[in-house]
């Protein structure tokens, strides 16, 4: 009998043998595992063996398991294959919707409940992934980012206008991007602070805000020389240049006197990316139709076919 076994003894309180180990008067009991625990352990081992046989579990050498890197088991099961099949089915379903969209005008979309549902669902998903960060989840816009729900458009609100804007972007790196640039009249010292104050009062007066009559008169002269070429003599703007209407009380960068002065001083330069390199044509079609249908779209006869 080994020295270790000689040290084993039966504990008087539990009737269980000790392991022979003792430290500072504390002896370690050699308590066996409960039988129910052992039965569960053995059952789990048996279940693991069965699972290994029937389900994909074992890594395979290249070429031994087809396109996967593991054996598929007797059930020939593959989650990767299932996901690929589901994606193929989804792509086929979307292809039908995109094909129908490509041949439909906005009016036809609105009159076809199934196609309208597809456009709203697909467009909303694309919008949420790519546009909501700047324009808001509800397309309500923020300071510097246009509201897409109203009928105020810088570059036009027909389907074709919206689609072109999405395709080439605004002041983006696309060679055909929509481009306009308002001078920074204060930062570049093109106008004095007093002149900026006067033209601010004049601009605000165009939408009904009262101001000092003398300032408005002086501002009108500055406006005629510096601003009318883009915003037009009456301040109604020019979509061909992306110059906003100054008479409608809709302000992209804020409509208080301080905000308008700041806009004139620094010359805003907002950028929207060109989505042509990020989204395919069918997806841009769906996104343009979705934005159009938010409520502010113009000229309902225009559509994905340019009608």
Helix and strand arrangement:
Blueprint: H1 3-7, E1 18-23, E2 26-29, H2 35-54, H3 79-102, H4 106-111, H5 113-130, H6 132-135, H7 159-168, H8 193-206, H9 213-226, H10 228-231, H11 257-266, H12 281-292
Antiparallel strand pairs: 1-2
What would your notes on this structure say?
- There is one protein chain.
- The chain has 307 residues and is mainly alpha-helical.
- The chain has a domain at 153-281: Cytochrome Bc1 Complex, Chain D, domain 2.
- Helices cover 46% and strands 3% of the residues.
- The chain has helices at residues 3-7, 35-54, 79-102, 106-111, 113-130, 132-135, 159-168, 193-206, 213-226, 228-231, 257-266, 281-292; strands at residues 18-23, 26-29.
- The radius of gyration is 36 Å and the shape is elongated.
- Residues 300-307 have low confidence and may be disordered.
Précis, in short:
With 307 residues, the chain is mainly alpha-helical. The chain contains twelve helices and two strands.
Class based on secondary structure composition and strand pairing = mainly alpha
**What percentage of amino acids are in beta strands?**
under 5%
C-alpha termini separation: 100 Å
Any idea what the CATH architecture of the domain at 153-281 is? Answer: Orthogonal Bundle
CATH class type of the domain at 153-281: Mainly Alpha
Low-confidence stretches: 300-307
Q: Largest sheet at a glance?
A: 2 strands, antiparallel
What integer is the average pLDDT? 89
Topology as H/E string?
Answer: HEEHHHHHHHHHHH
In CATH, the homologous superfamily of the domain at 153-281 goes by the name: Cytochrome c-like domain
Report strand order across the widest sheet: 1-2
Coarse morphology: elongated
User: What fold name goes in the CATH topology slot of the domain at 153-281?
Assistant: Cytochrome Bc1 Complex, Chain D, domain 2
The portion of residues assigned to helices is: 40-55%
Total strands: 2
List the total number of helices. Answer: 12
Radius of gyration: 36 Å
Main location: membrane
Keywords: Cell inner membrane, Cell membrane, Electron transport, Heme, Hydrogen ion transport, Ion transport, Iron, Membrane, Metal-binding, Oxidoreductase, Repeat, Respiratory chain, Transmembrane, Transmembrane helix, Transport
Domain Cytochrome c: 118-207, 214-295
Subcellular location: Cell inner membrane
């Amino acid at each position: 009998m080994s020295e270790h076994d000689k040290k084993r003894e039966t504990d008087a309180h539990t009737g269980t043998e000790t392991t022979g180990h003792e430290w500072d008067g504390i002896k370690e009991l050699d308590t066996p595992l409960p039988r129910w625990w052992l039965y569960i352990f053995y059952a789990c081992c048996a279940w693991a063996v069965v699972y290994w046989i029937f389900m994909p579990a074992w890594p395979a050498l290249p070429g031994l398991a087809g396109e996967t890197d593991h054996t598929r088991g007797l059930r020939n099961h593959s989650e990767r294959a299932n996901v690929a099949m589901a994606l193929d089915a989804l792509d086929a379903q979307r292809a039908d919707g995109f094909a129908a969209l490509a041949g439909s005008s906005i009016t036809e979309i609105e009159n076809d409940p199934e196609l309208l549902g597809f456009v709203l669902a697909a467009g909303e998903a694309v919008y949420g992934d790519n546009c909501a960060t700047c324009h808001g989840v509800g397309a309500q816009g923020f300071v510097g980012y246009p509201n897409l729900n109203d009928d105020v458009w810088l570059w036009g609100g027909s389907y074709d206008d919206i689609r072109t804007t999405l395709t080439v972007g605004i002041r983006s790196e696309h060679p055909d991007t929509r481009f306009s640039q308002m001078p920074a009249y204060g930062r570049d010292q093109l106008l004095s602070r007093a002149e900026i104050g006067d033209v601010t009062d004049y601009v605000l007066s165009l939408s009904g805000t009262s101001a000092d009559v003398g300032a408005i008169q002086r501002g009108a002269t500055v406006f005629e020389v510096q601003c009318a070429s883009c915003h037009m003599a009456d301040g109604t703007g020019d979509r061909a240049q992306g110059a906003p209407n100054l008479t409608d009380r809709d302000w992209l960068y804020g409509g208080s006197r301080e905000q308008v002065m700041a806009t004139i001083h620094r010359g805003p330069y907002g950028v929207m990316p060109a989505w042509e390199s990020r989204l395919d044509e069918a997806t841009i079609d769906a996104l343009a139709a979705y934005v159009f249908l938010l409520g502010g779209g113009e000229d309902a006869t225009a559509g994905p076919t340019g009608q």
